[in-house]
From TrEMBL:
Lineage, top ranks: Bacteria, Pseudomonadati, Pseudomonadota, Alphaproteobacteria, Hyphomicrobiales
Protein origin, superkingdom: Bacteria
Protein name (database record): Trehalose-6-phosphate synthase
Residue span relative to the full protein: 61 to 535 of 606
Family per record: Belongs to the glycosyltransferase 20 family.
Length: 475
């Protein structure tokens, strides 16, 4: 094991996730998790462990700590032989659709499960080097069994898990191979965090129906000890968003933004920004536009930004084609020589460029079929002009809809294009006074619970295990 010296002994936070932030302000970010955690780790002086772009032969090497200015980052070359089964397979072809309650998109393979377990053990082996740091915070569905594996290696520090995605009803989890073993391993965490009450209740329902375990006052008691379940709705950094709007863009980004906005000069447009993922409901949104333009021709355009994501997963390739042809149909039907209903981009934009596009858009359309939280909803709100804000159209199945009610956002069922059409129409005609009232109320919520509150809350809750459980109890 490597000799590790932590320059900030007061915190000693170890964050572990599959995807790691680029730690480069000029690189575009697309994933919600990476965008959310980068400032947290930078501020804490901790270490963020995740996957590198390279694959290794599976030999365990010392944790490759690299200083980032404030804290450390450690990028692991995950074992090549298991990577496809771990990432493309079990994480993104089995768990991801199950967690989003889309069983028709699932594929299952016993081999993938083995790759997933072995990759988690590899990561646990690497993290062992920092076993004497204080708290271990594991993120997302790629790493469900990691806490149990850290435990097996004898790491006795508080270990917490946070799920960025939804947690589905028990019958969806039943379709995942080895779900009982997997769920048992999650009970090795001291703290399990969820985005919403819905997710927390679904997780508890599984424990009750399959293991006969009751959750009492947010605590599940097993032979090992206690796992606390708690809701931590993730937020954004609204101040950083204000800074983005004030700062200059790079010439290249400025060029991209200006040429896009030229399309809408003097006309209304709505914006959608999503990874190109079938959970995001982009196809239904496009159909919503189709219906709207039938009754209100040329009333509003859509700027849909959808950077490619997980392109080697079959369901994503199919979805990419489906979205493209849906957009082509709508543009052919409703477009003219001089006007296009839908402007579609598959490249990524920096947060600063997106902030400008959000601000210019009259409507933000966030209509995922299911989503853990959806930070685009919050970012769209944070980027608005307080004197003349746009309107948020929000899926009632996004976690953000537990934060924003129907007096704030226009809530829709994302499966029903006619509801999306009606909401965009209502949004685009909404009087200024109502727009301001709705926006102010959402913005207050965003400001009162930022990403920094979220992280501080989680870590202090996790730290309670350190205070209350004597370390030697585990030896
Ligand atoms: C979601 C997941 C994250 C993931 C991100 C991007 O937000 O919750 O864990 O990092 O999507 O997906 P990717 O597969 O590119 O990491």
């Amino acid at each position: 094991a490597a000799d590790v010296v932590n320059p900030q002994p007061d915190l000693k936070l170890v964050v572990i996730s599959n995807r790691i932030a680029p730690f480069d302000p000029n690189k575009p970010q697309t994933g919600g998790l990476a965008a959310a955690l980068e400032p947290v780790v930078q501020r804490s002086g901790g270490v963020w462990v995740g996957s590198s772009e390279n694959r290794g032969d599976g030999t365990q090497v010392p944790l490759p700590l690299v200083e980032t200015g404030a804290g450390f980052v450690a990028r692991l070359d995950l074992p090549a032989a298991d990577h496809a089964g771990y990432y493309r397979g079990f994480s993104n072809s089995t768990l991801w659709p199950a967690l989003h309650s889309l069983p028709d998109r699932m594929s299952v393979s016993e081999d993938d499960y083995e790759c997933y377990q072995r990759t988690n053990s590899y990561i646990a082996g690497a993290v062992y080097d920092v076993r004497d740091w204080d708290v271990f915070w594991v993120h997302d569905y790629h790493l469900l069994p990691l806490g149990a594996q850290l435990n097996e290696l004898g790491i006795d520090r508080p270990t917490g898990f946070f799920l960025h995605t939804p947690w589905p009803e028990p019958d969806m989890v039943d379709r995942v191979p080895n779900h009982r073993e997997l769920m048992k391993s999650t009970l090795k965490y001291d703290l399990a965090g969820f985005q919403t009450n819905r997710d927390l209740n679904n997780y508890s329902a599984y424990l009750r129906t399959h293991f006969g375990l009751e959750t009492k006052d947010g605590v599940v008691t097993t032979e090992r000890g206690q796992t606390r379940l708690k809701k931590f709705p993730i937020g954004i950094d609204p101040k950083q968003f204000a800074d983005y709007l004030a700062a200059d863009l790079s010439p290249a980004e400025q060029g991209k933004v200006s040429s896009l906005l030229q399309n809408f000069e003097g006309a209304k447009f709505a914006i959608g920004v999503d990874r190109l993922d079938y959970t995001k409901g982009i196809d239904k949104r496009v159909e919503g536009f189709n219906q709207l333009l039938r009754t209100e021709p040329r009333s509003i355009s859509l700027l849909q930004i959808a950077p490619s994501s997980r392109a080697d997963v079959e369901q994503y390739q199919k979805y990419k084609d489906d979205v493209k042809s849906a957009i082509n149909r709508v543009n052919a039907k409703h477009g003219t020589d001089r006007w296009s209903p839908i402007h579609y981009r598959n490249d990524s934009f920096s947060q600063a460029a997106l902030a400008r596009l959000y601000r210019a858009a009259h409507v933000g359309v966030v209509t995922p079929l299911r989503d853990g939280m959806n930070l685009v909803a919050k970012e769209y709100v944070a980027a608005q002009d307080p004197k003349d804000p746009g309107v948020l159209v929000l899926s009632k199945f996004a976690g953000a809809a537990e934060d924003f009610n129907e007096n704030e956002a226009l809530l829709v069922d994302p499966n029903h294009p006619e509801e999306i059409a009606a909401a965009i129409s209502k949004a685009s005609h909404m009087p200024l006074e109502e727009r301001v009232t709705r926006w102010r109320s959402m913005m207050d919520k965003i400001e009162s619970y930022t990403i920094h509150d979220w992280a501080a809350d989680y870590v202090s809750e996790l730290d309670k295990s350190r205070v209350t459980v004597p370390a030697d109890q585990f030896h």
